[in-house]
Amino acid sequence: xxxxxxxxxxxxxxxxxxxxxxxxxxxxxxxxxxxxxxxxxxxxxx
Length: 46
What we know:
This protein is mostly beta strands. The protein has one helix at residues 18-21; strands at 2-11, 15-16, 29-30, 33-42.
């Protein structure tokens, strides 16, 4: 039997929503990011 643990951090490009909503440039931005943890267990049959 094996057990694993994986951690992944993903960060994506910054998006500027200012022009879409009529606000001054650079005032409404978003930089999405995710933290993901994965645990797995495997059993090997012979």
